[in-house]
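Lab notebook, bench 4. Still working through the backlog of constructs that have no structural model yet. Next entry is a single chain of 440 residues. Request: give me the C-alpha cells for it.
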Amino acid sequence: MIYDVIVVGTGAGGSTVARELSIKGLDVLILEKGEFIPSGSAVTGIKTADLILNQDEVKIPEYEFLKYPGELMYIEGVGGTTPVSLANACYACTTCYSNSPTAQFKIHDLELFEELMEASRDLKVGPLPQTRTGPVTRKIWDAAEKLGYFVEPMPKFIDYSRCNNCGLCIAGCTNGAKWDATDFVNDAVQAGATLVREFTVNKVLHSEGKCYGVEGVDSQGDTKTYQAQKVILAAGALNTPKILINSQITAGVGEGLFTDLFITVGGFLKDAKLNQEIPMGIKSEFGAYFLSPHFSSQLIHLMVEKGFVARNDDVVGLMVKIADEANGSLNDDGSITKTLTSWDLKLLTEGYDKAVEILTEIGVDPSSIVATHIRGAHPGGTAAMGKVVDRSLETEIKDLFIADASVIPQAPGRPPILTITSLAKRLAKNIIQETVQLKN
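Model written out:
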C-alpha cells in the first residue's frame, strides 16, 4: 500500500500535522518509536543524555551549578515530550526576545501569526488566572515587582474547568485538563489515520531526488518498509538528524544544536508547598532569559548537604532558562557536546543572581540557597531552516519534510510547543493545498 503521507513521530509537530491531514481525508500512516505513556506516570519515562559542556576560556566568578556535569532531558513515547510538559504556551515573539523564532522565521519570509492563533484556540491557551495563582507564586510575583522586575502570568494550555491545582503537570494530567499531543494523535486515528507504535524508523527511502517511503525496525526486530507520496519527519531534534544522516542527507544536519539551558535556584522555606501549586504560573522576562517559579526535587539533597532537613513542601525554586548559543553537536554514543560560551554564562549567572534576590525577598534562608546542575530540555537546531529545510519545511529531497524543533535555527529560550504546533499547521496547509491542486 502507498499512503498519501507518512508521519514519523507523535510529538507536538507530528501529532498536529497528522491530525490536520487526516481530518482533510488524506491517507496517513503515523509511525512512533515508543508506546503510550499512562497518565500520571509520564515523569517516569524521562530519560537523560550526557550534555558535555566545554567552557570558553573566560574567567567568571565561581558558581556551584558549574561544578556538576550537564544533562539533556528527553522522553520517547506517544505524544513526545508533551505529556511531561508544564503546559507552557509561549508565543516566542519579539516582545519577549528580539531573536525569537518569530523573528528568525521572518528572515526566511515565513509568517506564522494565523497558525499561532489557530493553535492557541485548539490547545485552549490562556494566561494563568489570578484565582489559580498559588500563595507562594503570588509571593514571588510581589517580591519581583518590589525589586523592579516586570511579572506576568504564564500562558498555559490548560482547561481550568478540569484542573484541580495538583501541581503534577510533569506526571501527565490524570484529569485531562492539560493538553498533550496524544489528544491530537487520537483525533487523527478517529479521522482514519493508521498508528503503528514501537516502530523505529532508521532511514528515508529516496531515489533521483524524490522521497518515496521509510525503512525501520518493528517491535519484533524485523526490518520493514512503508511507502508514501510524502514523508514528514517529526522525530525530534535528536532523532530526526540521525534518520537524515542514515539516509545520506548530511549537509548542515546535526550542526548548531541548542538546548534552552536552564538551572533551578532554590532554598528552604518551611511549609511553602510550592510543589502543590500549578508550576511555572508566572514569568519575568529579561530578553534572552526568563525566570519562573519551579519546584525541583533535585534541590533537596543539595540543601541537605548544607545542613537543611528539607521536605518537598519546604522547597521554593525559580527556574532560569536561557537562549543558549546554537553551537552543539550530536555524538555517536548519544551524548551531546556543546561549548558553554561567555554569553551563555553571562545569562545564567545574571539569572542566578536575580533568583537569589527574589528568593531572599520572600523569606528563603539565604544560607540554604542552592542551584541544580545545568540541564537542557528543548533540543533544536539540528535541521535548521535555511540550512536543511526551506521556508516550506522541505528538504533537498522532494516530498521529504521536517516538522519538529530541529528546524528552528537558534534557541528561543522559551518552551517551543506552541511554535512547533504552528509550524506543523502551516505544513499541513501547504500539503492540503498541493493535494487539491493536483486533483483538480
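Notes after review: The two ends are 23 Å apart (CA to CA). The chain has a mean pLDDT of 95. Flag for follow-up if needed.
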